[in-house]
Amino acid sequence: MKIIGTNSLLYWLRIPFAIYVIGFIMSSLWMTGLIGFYIFSGSENRFIWKSNWEVPNNNETIASEIIQFKYPFSKMCLATENSTEGILLALTGIISFSYILFYALRITLKLSKDNFFTADIVKDLKFAGFGLIIFGIAILLIDVTNGFSKYYNSYDLTPPFFYLLFGLILIFIKEIFQKAKNIQEENELTI
């Protein structure tokens, strides 16, 4: 069985993947609305509540207030530290993952066709790559501008690093698809 193109594995998995992406993006819009409501009002309701959490740190226990946002139609919730940094990082994570899934769906739908060396897929790879780089820089700026965490005396550079790395990889793949598209156009002109 083929992996990409018509009647391939990707062709048959595109519909369940599209359903998942649409569901995730819709629940992300819900979570973004809840986070926005909490930022502007500061109040709790049945979808937003606070709790305390104790974190061990160097033979002492530090208490922290956690804010939880409940996902619709499930028992899952997004829990983050009730601070500017925690809420901004949670919001950036939700938005960035929705962005990544949106472009992954667009690329998947285009790769499920026979002719996938097109300008559209090159453009989608470029937007996905640069978007990941921008999200990596945004996460790094949120971490740096809000200072050190009160629990650890260092920054966590892992998420921004992976955003930047995967963004650069997608830009590299975009260049490969651009060259393949150019070669395909040259071959079509010579025939």
Unreliable spans: none
Count, helices: 4
The average pLDDT value, as a whole number, equals 84
SS-based class? alpha+beta
Question: What Rg, in angstroms, do the CA atoms define?
Answer: 21 Å
Biggest β-sheet: strands ordered side by side in the sheet: 1-2-3
Query: Helix coverage percent of residues?
Result: 55-70%
Order of helices and strands: HEEEHHH
Write down the oligomeric state: single chain
Biggest sheet statistics: 3 strands, antiparallel
Could you describe the 3D structure shown?
The chain has about 190 residues and is α+β, with helices and mostly antiparallel strands. Helix content is about 65%, strand content about 15%. It contains four helices and three strands; from the N terminus they run H-E-E-E-H-H-H. The chain has helices at about 10-40, 85-110, 120-145, 160-190, and strands at about 50-55, 60-70, 75-80. A three-stranded antiparallel sheet has the order 1-2-3. Strand 2 and strand 3 (about 75-80) form a beta hairpin. Helix 1 (about 10-40) packs antiparallel against helix 2 (about 85-110), helix 2 (about 85-110) packs antiparallel against helix 3 and helix 3 runs antiparallel to helix 4. The longest helix is centred in the N-terminal third of the chain and has 33 residues, at about 10-40. The radius of gyration is 21 Å and the shape is elongated. The model has no long low-confidence stretch (mean pLDDT about 85).
